[in-house]
Amino acid sequence: MQAKAKKPLAKLLAYGIGSVALYAAVYQFQDILLTTSARGGVFTALPIATVFLFSWVHGTFAGTLWEVLGVSAVTKAPAQTATRAPARQDNRPRATVSV
To answer: In which residue ranges is the amino acid composition biased (Low complexity) (predicted)?
Structure first.
Protein backbone atom coordinates (compact mmCIF):
# COMPACT_ATOMS: atom_id res chain seq x y z
CA MET A 1 0.00 0.00 0.00
CA GLN A 2 1.33 3.43 -0.91
CA ALA A 3 1.42 6.32 1.50
CA LYS A 4 -0.54 9.35 0.35
CA ALA A 5 1.73 12.15 -0.73
CA LYS A 6 0.95 15.65 0.48
CA LYS A 7 -0.83 17.59 -2.24
CA PRO A 8 0.75 20.94 -3.19
CA LEU A 9 -2.29 23.10 -2.43
CA ALA A 10 -0.21 26.16 -1.47
CA LYS A 11 1.65 26.01 -4.78
CA LEU A 12 -1.65 25.62 -6.62
CA LEU A 13 -3.14 28.62 -4.85
CA ALA A 14 -0.04 30.79 -5.40
CA TYR A 15 0.21 30.10 -9.13
CA GLY A 16 -3.57 30.37 -9.54
CA ILE A 17 -3.56 33.83 -7.98
CA GLY A 18 -0.51 34.73 -10.07
CA SER A 19 -2.22 33.61 -13.26
CA VAL A 20 -5.37 35.59 -12.49
CA ALA A 21 -3.27 38.63 -11.57
CA LEU A 22 -1.37 38.47 -14.86
CA TYR A 23 -4.56 38.29 -16.90
CA ALA A 24 -6.07 41.17 -14.92
CA ALA A 25 -2.91 43.26 -15.33
CA VAL A 26 -2.81 42.74 -19.09
CA TYR A 27 -6.45 43.70 -19.50
CA GLN A 28 -6.04 46.69 -17.16
CA PHE A 29 -2.86 48.01 -18.79
CA GLN A 30 -3.33 46.87 -22.38
CA ASP A 31 -3.00 50.40 -23.82
CA ILE A 32 0.32 50.97 -22.07
CA LEU A 33 1.63 47.57 -23.19
CA LEU A 34 0.60 48.19 -26.80
CA THR A 35 2.07 51.68 -27.05
CA THR A 36 5.30 50.60 -25.36
CA SER A 37 5.81 47.58 -27.61
CA ALA A 38 5.02 49.68 -30.71
CA ARG A 39 8.02 51.93 -30.01
CA GLY A 40 10.27 49.38 -31.68
CA GLY A 41 13.82 48.47 -30.85
CA VAL A 42 14.29 46.66 -27.56
CA PHE A 43 10.65 47.25 -26.67
CA THR A 44 9.64 44.80 -29.41
CA ALA A 45 10.66 41.97 -27.04
CA LEU A 46 7.97 43.02 -24.53
CA PRO A 47 5.15 40.91 -26.06
CA ILE A 48 7.48 37.91 -26.36
CA ALA A 49 8.58 38.22 -22.72
CA THR A 50 4.94 38.59 -21.67
CA VAL A 51 3.98 35.40 -23.49
CA PHE A 52 6.84 33.47 -21.90
CA LEU A 53 5.82 34.72 -18.45
CA PHE A 54 2.18 33.74 -19.06
CA SER A 55 3.25 30.34 -20.35
CA TRP A 56 5.40 29.62 -17.31
CA VAL A 57 2.92 30.80 -14.66
CA HIS A 58 -0.20 29.32 -16.24
CA GLY A 59 1.60 26.09 -17.20
CA THR A 60 2.84 25.57 -13.66
CA PHE A 61 -0.65 26.27 -12.35
CA ALA A 62 -2.24 23.78 -14.76
CA GLY A 63 0.35 21.08 -14.01
CA THR A 64 -0.12 21.52 -10.27
CA LEU A 65 -3.91 21.43 -10.70
CA TRP A 66 -3.68 18.05 -12.43
CA GLU A 67 -1.35 16.83 -9.68
CA VAL A 68 -3.79 17.89 -6.96
CA LEU A 69 -6.66 16.21 -8.84
CA GLY A 70 -4.62 13.00 -8.93
CA VAL A 71 -4.07 12.83 -12.68
CA SER A 72 -0.53 11.83 -13.61
CA ALA A 73 1.30 10.73 -16.72
CA VAL A 74 1.87 7.06 -17.42
CA THR A 75 5.43 6.07 -16.65
CA LYS A 76 6.93 3.42 -18.85
CA ALA A 77 9.68 1.05 -17.88
CA PRO A 78 13.00 1.73 -19.61
CA ALA A 79 13.40 -0.15 -22.86
CA GLN A 80 15.32 -3.40 -22.68
CA THR A 81 18.31 -3.67 -24.97
CA ALA A 82 17.90 -6.55 -27.37
CA THR A 83 20.50 -9.31 -27.10
CA ARG A 84 21.98 -10.39 -30.39
CA ALA A 85 21.97 -14.01 -31.36
CA PRO A 86 25.45 -15.46 -31.88
CA ALA A 87 26.67 -15.33 -35.46
CA ARG A 88 26.15 -18.61 -37.27
CA GLN A 89 28.46 -20.16 -39.78
CA ASP A 90 27.31 -19.94 -43.37
CA ASN A 91 27.89 -23.40 -44.92
CA ARG A 92 26.07 -22.83 -48.21
CA PRO A 93 27.97 -23.57 -51.39
CA ARG A 94 29.24 -20.55 -53.28
CA ALA A 95 29.37 -20.02 -57.00
CA THR A 96 32.88 -19.98 -58.41
CA VAL A 97 34.27 -18.83 -61.74
CA SER A 98 36.48 -21.22 -63.73
CA VAL A 99 39.18 -19.70 -65.90
So the answer is: 77-86
